[in-house]
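Deviations from the work plan: none for this task. Representative record:
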Amino acid sequence: MAFLQQFALLLALLIIFSTSCKTAMLEVDSAEVGLNYSLKSSAIENISTSTNDSTGGHGSSTITTLPIVIWKWHHVETPYLVALWILTCWLCKLVAELNHNITSVIPESGLLIMMGFILGGIVWGADKAQTFKLIPVNFFYYLLPQIVLDASYCMPNKLFFSNLGAILVHAVIGTCWNAGTVGIALWGCYEGGAMGNLNIGLLQFLLFGALMSAVDPVAVIAVFEEVHVNEVLYILVFGESLLNDGVTVVLYNVFDAFVSLGGPKINAAEIIKGIISFFVVSFGGSFLGVVFAVLISMLTRVTKNVQVIEAGFIIVLGYLSYLTAEMLSLSAILSITFCGVCCQKYITANMDEKSVTTLRYVLKVMANGSETMIFVFLGLSAIDQNIWVWNTGFILLTILFIVIFRFMGVFFLNWLLNQSRLIPIDLTDQFVMGYGGLRGAVAYGLAASLDEKKIPEKNLMLGTTLIVVYFTVILQGITMKPLVQWLKVKRAAHSDLKLIEKLNNRAFDHILSAVEDICGRIGDNWWTRGWNRFEENYISWLLMKPKARKNRDYLFSIFHKLNLEDAVNYVSEGERQGSLAFIRSDEVANVDFKKQFGSEFTDVMPDIMVNMSNYELGIENFSVTSIVKDTIPSVSLDIHGKDRKNAADDINAHHLLQQHLYRSRKNHRHKFSRSHFSINQSEDEVQEIFQRTMRSRLESFKSAKMGVNPAKKITKHHKKDLTHKMANGHPDGTDHLYGDEVDSAVGSETGAIRGTFMRDTYTVRAGIENPVFLPAMDSPTHSSLPWLMETDAVAPSQRAQWRLPWTPNRLRRLAPMRVSTCSTDSFLMADLEEHEEKPQTDHEEEIRPVFD
Amino acid sequence: MGSTNSTLLKIPNVEVLMQETGFSPAHIIRLHDRFKALDKEGRGHLCPHDFGAIKELAMNPIGDRIIGAFFSPGKETVDFHTFVKILAHFRPVDKDRPKEPNSPEPINSRSNKLKFAFQLYDQDKDGKISRDELLQVLRAMLGMQVTDEQLESIADRTIQEADLDRDDAISFEEFRKSLEKINIDHKMSIRFLR
């Protein structure tokens, strides 16, 4: 898996620790991992002495005898510590998430910071100094990129771009406003004598204001995701915080340059240069991101043959876009943001669905992982006496100003925006926006990377930044939820995906652009439509696979998604019910999918089952068609229930049972296809009884470990079975699946009976091996959905066991069941095996584990 | 203001029109100009082919339906009043405007907006979107990208989602219910008509 390599690489690069860490720290670390504080003090002594010994031994070049095992701590020290710290931080998250009553009050980010305090205290206690802290290089190069990439890649694109104007206004103008006003106001207060005697000038205050204006996306996401505000508010706050980081860094760099330049040298020309550099850096970074997005999209057009590492390309190239921007001294955050936002649509279309899922999860793992680490280390870094230079005036005024000016900026800009917005941002939303200005790791990272030579009061600034971060993340984070409830902020309407809504959205778009045409004015929809047309004609042509281009209609993909969802629900619901038939019934849908959408769509409409079967059967490289051809409805239910003498009776009984099962299931299905899946418990009693008996059978066979044969054996068996079948020359060409030897034996004798039997009840199923089958199935009753169809309503129960036995995990589940059918009251099959096994000696080894 | 007033005075019953639609004088004048521009032959009313002359509209997949919405059944022309009234559907809802208790429902209310959308589907005006009507719209909007079978299953699914009384058609009530969660004020409003 590509992402594993990728991730391992990143982990190895994560150097969180200052280089001169003592080996003793390892012990503190591992003690914390186990949260085993009592052991700590004694263990440290032991280990540190032993490590000292071993390092001595390791360091000596001459050896007197061949060592069997050597203690090589220094070989692995750095990666080992990195891995341990990652583990520690993630365990902290685990602990923080243990109790949901706590996380519903205190946001997770706050909890993690508090855990960081504890860990920091432990490190301090052990080492009497803060050996571990978040250093800016690690933060900016190894922790931040994946968070930004994940955030931008998962950005709801349409929402983002339709609100881009407002987001940009807040992110650019708002940030500059915050930086300027906070800096100037603090300077004014300093001049007024509110802070005593400090060695700070106006430029330094402005620099401080710039770094304090970074609204942290990590903190914001962590808080707002728990609150579930309405989507416009969410995208405004989230988009702003994301872009604002880029702007902040640019602003910070400009002011940093001013500080190094020194006050007297700054003239109008320098200021103009600063402004120009601001725009060049921001827009250049964004542009570079778009360039990389184009590169990624074009690359994914041709990665079909290396699907395994497809997802890795996006991560690597995303990271490269970050580093390249950094190299060109453009805004790296903006670069990776726009890279993620822009390439998202095309790579989703180009890549295999599995790769898309992989990418999403890998990004989530990486982003959440580093987010956790950031918060823990934010807490951890606080336990360091060096950075604490207390200045009450400075700290309190900073907090006061950032809150006040944030609110002022938000209200003013929103008022400005509301003049032209179709749906104005209402006052409560504005208030939450203002309150959501959480500061986080970016501010800390920038503060930590201040140069002490240029800014003598660096530690004061760093300490203040930390306090501001704690204040906003913990206090504002805790109060956010009650505030949102109290202000009755419009929450996100949780809605299921509905086709009719999407359809009408599309219709509304067309209507609006038509009305704009009639009015003869250029409006928003004109631009949207123009862009869409341009994209369709040129950009998609460049960036999308031809195949993806053909089938990428939005409505259609929604439909596809809904179908998949239904199928998954269907299966899981069936499994929950313990009914075997439900496990199967998705295959009905599967067959229908193919039929419905025609062969040219099978590749883009990856119906789950075909994929899965390919995947699971990869051992022997069975093609789907071969399976379909080979398998035959040798359904065990009836077959096992057949005795030679009263075969006909059993057929009848089975038939009866089938009828009942079929009916109840049909009801089931009908309900299922509604978006709200509920099961009518008062339905056909037969099914209930069936389920109950099935469950009790399962219970009784749980202890017997049967059918855990490795898959390979089984497939072999299957092959053997095939040849066996050939030799026997079964008239009906029945292929006997794993569990059905029994029936094959019967089959040779009662072949004629069964043949006829199958012909009438199993029409649908038997058709599968028959090429004529597809046309027969191909007359869909269009009035209903695949799984609602009357024609194959009979199928799931019939199909109840075809193809299952190949996959080992299914086997495990199936085997007891099958045996149970042999030995139950209804089928009276307990004594059948001895008759059956004789003609099939070549299967005995497979059968054995099942029956002993 | 002089020119504004003089233009306004040329339109008969302009006060009533403004009252009904909620448009400002500036909007009325703009729309009047547009109306006159569309009405190339100067007859004082518009015919379907006047709309057809709008190039962009001809490319709109459901453009002809929207044009059709301007003409009440049996009529071949639309005068300025009807023209403005229909466009008034797309005026954003203004919250500040005081609501008079006994005033009729404004044209740009949520349900009127929905009705406008509904009648685009419901071409035979029987108060229901039948499967065939839905299919026609779907075919127009999805175009060549999707096969007929897919279109049909999409249509079936759509009807199924909305259809509460199981008559295989969507009545207006069902239509309204199924779109309850959509912010119609947002989706069916045009900013410059504010």
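Chain B has a mean pLDDT of 77.
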